[in-house]
Each structure stands twice: as structure tokens, then as C-alpha cells.
Write a structure and sequence with these properties.
It contains twelve helices and 13 strands. It is an alpha/beta fold and 342 residues long. The strands form two sheets. It has an eight-stranded mixed beta sheet, sandwiched between helices. Strands 1, 2, 4, 5 and 6 form a five-stranded antiparallel beta sheet that branches. The termini are far apart. 38% of the residues are buried.
Length: 342
């Protein structure tokens, strides 16, 4: 990968939240990169640090509670965004980098017409006149498949269904033609047919605008047809990353195996149980010294509890952090990854 093809590089990102109970280490040394025009999916269960990583890239970690630790770097086109001044932040947020949150109703202003919310972005970042922005807002709603956009542009968020509100969020995000788009679980709480439509819209707009996308989700089914690369996150760390085909067909980490097995399948037999991952993720107030997955992993060895595993490189950007790949570890065959338990 050439230097100029990378739009984003995250290096050793560490984020903590200071609470009454102590320091919660939400993100612990996350590193990844994203190529221009490509899509990266960050997957993992709730509380693993996916959304905190997204907020860090958007510059939404606010003190005194939230803190991005010294030594963390987020390079956008080779420039560390953590060193931006106020003026540069304004151009970056919403203009060059946009985010679609999972709860559109909470993200949209309930007291402001939908058209005006799209216009705001256009007037600030593209310096359009009010008339130009109003016409563009109608076009943006048409582009994301909202019927009668001339009428809908004058309505308030509560007059839209959940799926339509999410389309409005996509319209706001794409209004300024961002170079980097972060989708933080954009299909949560939507039914399956609407989920598919929303993902298709994001995918089409990504191709049309050559936008780089970070898709954050806990659902591996969402990832398959949108991302080229996948990073699997657990307990504030990336435990495995690689190309989409690597993660789905030759996963190397027991947590990735468990995630794939827990995806419901259409070919399950009658009354066959869905697979689940036993136990709970570790407490990030007191993170484990060894592998964070060791308490839930059936392949756990003594060293897993005592030391963090080194990252093993399997070539072509596919890496995993697991002691099973150490030369002295017992040989373990990858389990049958079909969902459901016999």
C-alpha cells in the first residue's frame, strides 16, 4: 500500500474515560489504516470500544471525562488531527469527515425542519447561499430515495419513520461530499428489508463519490457486502484484522470463530440451538494482563492468563493476536464455522 493511497492511519490509539469508579480504559492501543475509496468494517460486541474509536476519529472525545492518551496518533492524509486548531477542526468535522450515528432521532434536531438541517451543513462548509442550499437539500433527499422531497424537506424529524430518518442522516452526511465517512451501526433498530436498503444507499454513494468508509457494527452479516477489510475488536483492542475473505474463510482468532458461529443461518435444522459466546467481556476498569478473551476461550492456556499474545502475521495484511499461533502451542484445528449447535 503506497503512502498516498492511505487516507487514514490510526496508530496506538488509547482512550480513557475518568469516572467516579476510576479510569475506564475504553481503547487500548488500536492501530489500523484505511485506503482511499475503500471500506473498513470494525466488528465486535457492545462495549468493545468501536464507537469510542469512531468518536476519536471525529474529534468528539471531550474532556475532562474523555481523554485521548499521549502517544496516540490519528493521521488524516498524513496530518495528525489531534494537533488541529479550532479553524481546521471546523473544516474537518462535517466537511471532510462525516458520521452517521445509530440513533437518527437522537442525532437530528427535533425542533428544526429536516431541510434546514441539511442546509446548515451546506452553508457552513460549501458557502452556498440560502436559496442554493434549499435546492440542494431537496436534491439530497431525492438522492437517498425519499419520495416527494419538495414536500418532505419542510417536515420535522418526528414526521419520518425510522428508516426515512436514517436516510435523512445519510443525506446530511453526504451533503458536503466528505472524503471520510464513519457509519456507527447505521442499521440498528431497523427491520431487515430497510437495513438492506440503507446499506445499498451507503454503498452506491460511496462508489459515486469515491468516499472512504469505516463501518462500525456488531453484525457480521452487515459487513459481507460492503467492506473490503475487517478489524475484529475485543476489550478495547484489535485481536484480528485482514481482508473480508480472510476473516470469513480463514479466521485465526478464537473470538472471530465464535463471532462467525453466532451468526444465525438459514439452513439451521428445526429446534437447533443458536450458537452463543459464554461469559462476559472483561471489566475495562481493571483490564486483564493477559489475553482479554482468555476467560471465555475454550482453548485457553496458562500463558494466555499471564501475558498478552504477540501479533502473528499470516501475510497480505492478515494478522491475529493469539497464543495458539506460537510454535510451542498445541495444534488446534479451526472449528466448523456453521452457525448453530448440535
Amino acid at each position: 500500500m503506497s503512502e498516498n493511497s492511505k487516507i487514514l492511519e490510526v496508530k496506538n490509539l488509547r482512550v480513557s474515560y475518568h469516572t467516579y469508579a476510576g479510569e475506564v480504559k475504553s481503547v487500548r492501543g488500536v492501530s489500523f489504516e484505511l485506503e482511499t475509496g475503500k471500506a473498513l468494517a470494525i466488528v465486535g460486541e457492545s462495549g468493545c470500544g468501536k464507537s469510542v474509536t469512531a468518536k476519536s476519529i471525529m474529534g468528539l472525545i471531550k474532556g475532562p471525562q474523555g481523554e485521548i492518551k499521549e502517544g496516540s496518533e490519528i493521521l488524516y492524509n498524513g496530518e495528525n488531527i489531534l494537533k488541529y486548531d479550532k479553524k481546521r477542526w471546523q473544516a474537518y468535522k462535517g466537511g471532510e469527515c462525516a458520521i452517521i450515528f445509530q440513533d437518527a432521532l437522537a442525532s437530528l434536531n427535533p425542533t428544526m425542519r429536516v431541510g434546514k438541517q441539511i442546509m446548515e451543513n451546506l452553508m457552513v462548509h460549501k458557502h452556498m447561499s440560502k436559496k442554493e442550499a434549499a435546492a440542494e437539500a431537496v436534491e439530497m433527499l431525492r438522492m437517498v430515495g425519499i419520495p416527494e422531497p419538495e414536500k418532505r424537506v419542510r417536515q420535522y424529524p418526528h414526521e419520518f419513520s425510522g428508516g426515512m430518518r436514517q436516510r435523512v442522516m445519510i443525506a446530511i452526511a453526504f451533503a458536503c461530499d466528505p472524503k471520510l465517512l464513519i457509519c456507527d451501526e447505521p442499521t440498528t433498530a431497523l427491520d431487515v428489508t430497510i437495513q438492506g436498503q440503507i446499506l445499498d444507499i451507503i454503498k452506491d454513494l460511496q462508489k459515486k463519490h469515491n468516499t472512504s468508509v469505516i463501518m462500525i457494527t456488531h453484525d457480521l452479516g452487515v459487513v459481507a457486502n460492503i467492506a473490503q477489510d475487517i478489524a475484529v475488536m475485543y476489550s478495547g483492542m484489535i485481536v484480528e484484522k485482514g481482508k473480508c475473505s480472510d476473516i470469513f474463510y480463514t479466521p485465526r482468532h478464537p473470538y472471530t470463530w465464535a463471532l462467525i458461529q453466532s451468526v444465525p443461518r438459514l439452513d439451521l435444522e428445526n429446534k437447533q440451538e443458536l450458537a452463543s459466546i459464554p461469559g462476559t467481556p472483561p471489566d475495562l476498569l481493571n483490564p486483564p494482563v493477559g489475553c482479554p478473551f482468555c476467560t471465555r476461550c475454550k482453548y485457553c492456556m496458562q500463558i494466555c492468563k499471564e501475558e498478552m499474545p504477540e501479533t502473528t502475521d499470516f501475510g497480505d495484511g492478515h494478522v491475529a493476536a493469539c497464543w495458539l499461533h506460537h510454535p510451542m502451542a498445541p495444534k488446534v484445528e479451526m472449528p466448523n464455522l456453521k452457525g448453530g449447535q448440535r
